[in-house]
Amino acid sequence: MSRSRTEYDEVDSTVVLSALGSKYSAEILCAAGTPKSAQALSEDIEIPIATCYRRIEELVDAGLLTCEGRQLSEEGRRTNIYRRTLDEIEIDFSDDVPAFSRKHRTEAKNRLQDQLED
Q1: Structural domain boundaries of the chain?
Q2: Domain 5-117: which CATH class?
Q3: For residue 28, what are the CA distances in angstroms to 21, 64, 93, 95?
Q4: How many C-beta neighbours within 10 Å does residue 20 have?
Q5: Cα separation of 107 and 30, whole Å?
Q6: Sorted alphabetically, which SUPFAM superfamilies does this protein's record hold (predicted)?
Q7: Which tens digit of pLDDT belongs to each residue from 12-35?
C-alpha cells in the first residue's frame, strides 16, 4: 500500500510515470499543497470519490503524495489527510530509462503554507 519515506527515492520510474499519467493525478497533486481529505480533494476537483481514492492510492504508492495523519470529518468520522511530497518533478527521457529530478517539499514550507491557509 503506502511506502516509507526512505523508499520514495527508490520508486520504479514506471510506477511514477503510470501514476502521473492517470486522469486527475496532476489536479490532485496541485490541490494537495495543503493537507486535505479525499472528500475535500474530490469536491475541489469535482471528480467522483471512488476515482479520487484510486488516484490517491496510486500517488501514495509512487511516493508523490503522503498521508499526513487523520482528522475528524464534519460527520464525525476519522479520515486520512493527504499532502503532496514534492513541488516539482522533472523527467529526463534521453537515456534508456527515464530519470527523475524532484524538488521535495520541506517541513518548513509545509508549516508556512499551513499558517497562510488559516
Answers
A1: 5-117
A2: mainly alpha
A3: 12, 10, 24, 29
A4: 16
A5: 17
A6: Winged helix' DNA-binding domain
A7: 788 888 999 999 999 999 999 999
Residue 69: exposed, middle, or buried by beta-carbon count in 10 A (0-12, 13-18, 19+)?
Answer: exposed
Strand partners, 103: 88
pLDDT, tens digit, 9 for 90 and up, residues 40-83: 999 999 999 999 999 999 999 999 999 999 988 777 889 999 99
Reading the block at residue 103, the C-alpha cell is 524538488
Q: What is the pTM of this model?
A: 0.75
| Cα separation values, 37 from 6, 15, 83, 100, 101, Å | 24, 23, 9, 27, 27
End-to-end CA distance of the chain, in Å? 31
What are the residues facing 79 on neighbouring strands? 71
**DSSP 3-state assignment of 33?**
coil
> In angstroms, rounded to a whole number, what is the distance separating the alpha carbons of residues 4 and 54?
19
